[in-house]
Structure of NAD-dependent epimerase/dehydratase family protein:
Amino acid sequence: MRVVVTGAHGKVGRAAVKALAAAGHEVTGVDVTRPVFERHEPDEPGYKQAELTDAGQAFAVVHGADAVVHAAAIPDPTANAPHVVFHNNLMATFNMIEAAVRCGVSRFVNISSETVPGYFFADRPFLPDYAPVDEEHPARPQDPYALSKHFGEQLMDAAVRRSDIACISLRPSWVQHEGNYERNIGPQVRDASVIGAGLWSYTDVYDLADAIVLATESDLPGHEVFYIAAPDNAGGHDFAAVLREHYGDRIALRPLDRKDSSGISCAKAHRLLGWTPKRTWRDYLDDEGHTLPA
């Protein structure tokens, strides 16, 4: 397929471009950053620079595509003004799905977020109702990032109601790669009292890229939402024990697939997408949370 990947110079987009190209697709990467004007390698994916909050530029990059993977976004609400985060993320998503519908694109993969339930960046903090969290958990977003991702999923719902496009929204947990495991996950490996907002959950970027390929190639109709997270938690802790230690009975504990379970359930992705993660923090870090020697 001819696949357009937005946010192609970001952490997720870069891995998705490589995975989709390796799977045999004709990939065009899109980002707001400038291209490099050098001779291209024969198998190098194409690249287009575009500001996707501009509808005309979104239409220009989507035209002729069979599928779109929309990974472009400001990735959290903390480093930009709230209106900038909300406007950028929501308008880019609106323009891309609008262009995809109008241009007859058959498949749209929307990179949403684990923050949609709302408890990550809440001004009035609250806890999830239960763990592991799954797609049925209520969405109660407060911050501009989670709101933009929640509304993005609703844009997918609207698109499938008014057209023949099929959409998949992926909600990845905290995305890690070989360059940031020690910085981000290392503290949680060393000390279970260091709690990530996702209840010690994380995702390897290359496992996420595999999920993106599966979603792009999927023939699922309508709009489906999937969490994407590693099956284990950062540190390999006894999940039930640390949950009770830190939260008592304020978070209902649901049945676990394994003792060192993640705080997020990906059972739906396993069942409907056929996604099986292959990587763990132990591939990168030792038991003290330090990078393994090369």
